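quick one
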Amino acid sequence: MYLFKTIKNLQRYLLACKNRNESIGFVPTMGALHEGHISLLAFAQQHCTLTVCSIFVNPTQFNEKEDFDKYPRTTEADIALLEQNGCKVLFLPDVEEIYPHPDNPAPVFDFGYLDKPMEGAHRPGHFNGVAQVVTRLLQIVQPHHLFMGQKDYQQYKIIDKMLQITQSPVVLHMCPTLREPSGLAMSSRNIRLSPKEREQAAHIYRALLLVQQSMEVLPPKQARMAALNYLEQHIQNAQPEYLEIVNAHTLERVQHWKDAAQTVVCTAVRVGNVRLIDNLLLPPQTT
Ligand code: PAF
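structure w/ pantoate:
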């Protein structure tokens, strides 16, 4: 695996690849890699002849300094995992490489309603930070394909919109969430859970499944309440920040299942000190 820390060296290498007509896939990450990231890499490897991964813990997308400081950094293990899984190119820049002029304002995108609810409401500035770094990384890597996980569904929608706004030719792919046997969505933050919290966190997915199971008999508003009650009953000191059933395209709340061709239930829950998110795309309904 080639490891590049500077834009100059990465771009020199990628130019030679593009001149050979390689199709470039890109998997941006913040490290602390797990099987979920490796599945993104595997998707990219199936679609493209060359895959670039990046590891960069982006300071501009953390709205809590403590979350940034505590974000797991496991670079040595990440490098070994990428190598074992056949990654050819890793971009591992410093902050100065990505943001050489920290005073320059980040580009401000108008995401319409997409960055208003859910994560947008609870993490002010988060999506602008995500869009800022992904724009920057795309400028650097200039891939043909971009691979992102469904676990961050709202982030996926934001990046999709950002690509439309910038008229980018990059093809965006959403890859399914990988889960532990308990159902807990794989996340870099899971390593911060105690064994007890990890057991409890599995109830997050069960609450999402409860929404899916109740679709035939309950309207969205009541299905949402049932899932919130389930979380409160099953996770000690559970602090669900939100659990919303929304139109998967616009992210607006739905009143009736038939209001949207596709709905998605999204949640963020604090288990102990760890904030976890998850979502489930729901099957279409006619009522
Ligand atoms: O999903 C993530 O890990 C990050 O938000 C991303 C897309 C790598 C941008 O920093």
